[in-house]
Write a structure and sequence with these properties.
The strands form five sheets. A six-stranded antiparallel sheet has the order 13-12-15-10-11-14, covered by helices on one side. It has 14 helices and 20 strands. It binds FE2/S2 (inorganic) cluster. The site of FE2/S2 (inorganic) cluster has 13 residues, from loops.
Length: 487
């Protein structure tokens, strides 16, 4: 019997991004009903799909691991206890199914034996008996089960699907993840605060399915809330497929300003003129932000409070480990301190934010072209990691202009994205003039962008952004398809 799967599970089973399945549904090459795809249809379209053969799945998992930082690199399998409980849920469903089948089998056997008694006198009864017998024989000799059904059972044990109301988003909970961690990894903007069971901001209602507490929470829900199915998403995981009710951020206005003190974890050169600053927040304090946003960093040094604003270069899903690409800039007091060796591991850094509107909306599916100049790559990296997590974008391209010798300081990372994703393209250009280079980069991008709904996101110094915008205008790109961030 065919089984209905959510888009996330179907994509996971056949090892391709959700965005590709969405495109196939839109084009009519894959049938869906109410947003669900049945396993027979999946097998028709992907006849050779095998979970263990899905190299794409492994490549995507590797890229995600690299994006999400060490804290998020956890085993693919949940702990034995969670596995056992998911198996228990599965076995209960199986037992129920078996009980029904036995009842139907008994019903058919009773009908045949009853008809046996009348067959000598009643021709209709005899024909009905033959029909039931041949029907039963057909069932017993029927084709082997759809292998995707067996893989679905396995998937139900190693992960659980969560459908969110009212947005309709869905995502998988894997490994040791809490429901909140899994939602953030999937690029969703759930409401939360501490991430550690203290604030209650991640409270959501479970409409159906079973959850289990995986981390102690000091925040206590009232007996009425518990009775109504409210749980803390940061301290619970899913034992079975779930439907939950919770609100998601739809833009920067939904994210409150936060202030916290983080520690410098490391400072590493990415090139001669670019430093990678890694900050880590305390366990009980996370920074909630949207991909593409920035924060103001402040350091007390020799009686002065040095401050500057920088885009976050990491994924919002790893909210404790914040990465920044600091360019050598004599006008930036914090960067100057860092390049002069005045900022060291374990130093405190005040973080205030997030700030900025350079973000993608929810449910973006159309192709995206990113145009970056030098460290304009930083917020774009965060956005690309978000796009990878959300798996909803049809195709995305990065065109990166370097005006300095170390301008393409993470070209290897971009090359690994090209390797992992068929729908990602990377094009590098070097030119010391940000305006002339920006215009050329944009012309090349426009020659490749064939869809009339492609969105263009630009980030870099003012001359670069202005040159790109002007060139986009000359190529007939409307303003409402352009998003700009001047560094
Ligand atoms: S995020 Fe604070 S309790 Fe869950």
């Amino acid at each position: 019997m065919a089984r209905a799967l959510t888009l996330s599970k179907a994509a996971h089973l056949v090892g391709i991004p959700r965005g590709t399945l969405q495109r196939m549904i839109r084009e009519g090459s894959l049938a869906s009903f109410d947003g669900l795809i049945d396993t027979d249809e999946l097998r028709r379209v992907f006849p050779t799909a095998r979970l263990e053969d899905s190299g794409m799945l492994e490549r995507v998992a590797r890229i995600r691991d690299e994006s999400f930082g060490r804290r998020m690199r956890e085993r693919a399998l949940p702990p034995a206890e969670i596995l056992a409980q998911r198996l228990f849920v599965q076995s209960e469903e199986l037992a129920e199914l078996r009980r029904h089948l036995q009842a139907y089998h008994q019903l058919v056997a009773t009908a045949i034996s009853k008809l046996d008694q009348d067959a000598s006198t009643d021709d209709t009864a005899s024909r009905l008996r033959q029909m039931l017998e041949s029907g039963l024989a057909d069932v017993l000799a029927s084709e082997p089960a759809n292998p995707l059904d067996a893989m679905t059972d396995m998937l139900n044990v190693v992960c659980a699907n969560v459908v969110v109301r009212p947005s309709g988003h869905d995502f998988l909970v894997e490994g040791n993840d809490s429901i909140l961690q899994a939602a953030l990894k999937a690029g969703l903007g759930f409401n939360y605060g501490c991430g550690g069971g203290n604030c209650g901001l991640c409270k959501a209602r479970v409409v159906s399915g079973e959850v289990r507490e995986v981390m102690h929470a000091d925040y206590r829900l009232s007996p009425l809330e518990q009775q109504q199915g409210w749980v803390l998403l940061c301290s619970h995981t899913a034992l079975s497929d779930l439907v939950i009710e919770t609100l998601e951020a739809s833009g920067p206005a939904d994210i409150p300003e936060q202030q916290l003190v983080a520690k410098v974890r490391s400072l590493q050169p990415l090139g001669d003129d670019t430093l990678l600053l890694h900050l880590q927040t305390p366990r009980s304090t996370r920074l909630r932000f949207l991909a593409g946003q920035g924060v103001t960093l402040g350091v007390a040094h020799e009686g002065t409070d040095l401050q500057s604003t920088h885009p976050v270069a990491s994924c919002p899903c790893d909210d404790r480990n914040l990465l920044f690409h600091l360019p050598r800039d004599p006008l930036d007091p914090l960067a100057r301190l860092a390049f002069d060796g005045g900022l060291k591991p374990q130093d405190n850094v005040n973080v205030r934010g997030p700030v900025g509107e350079f973000v993608l909306g929810t449910n973006v599916e159309q192709p995206i072209v990113f145009l970056a100049c030098d460290t304009g790559f930083a917020p774009i990296k965060s956005l690309i990691e978000h796009v990878i997590a959300a798996e909803s974008i049809e195709s995305f391209e990065l065109h990166w202009l370097a005006t300095r010798s170390d301008g393409h300081y993470q070209a290897n990372l971009c090359a690994s994205w090209v390797d992992a994703f068929d729908n990602f393209g990377f094009h590098a250009l070097s030119d010391p003039d940000p305006a002339a280079g920006g215009a050329l980069l944009t012309r090349q991008a426009c020659e490749r962008a064939h869809r009339s709904d492609t969105a263009f996101l630009l980030c870099g110094p003012g001359e670069f952004v202005e040159a790109c915008r002007a060139e986009l205008g000359r190529n007939g790109i409307e303003e409402n398809r352009i998003l700009r961030n001047v560094l």
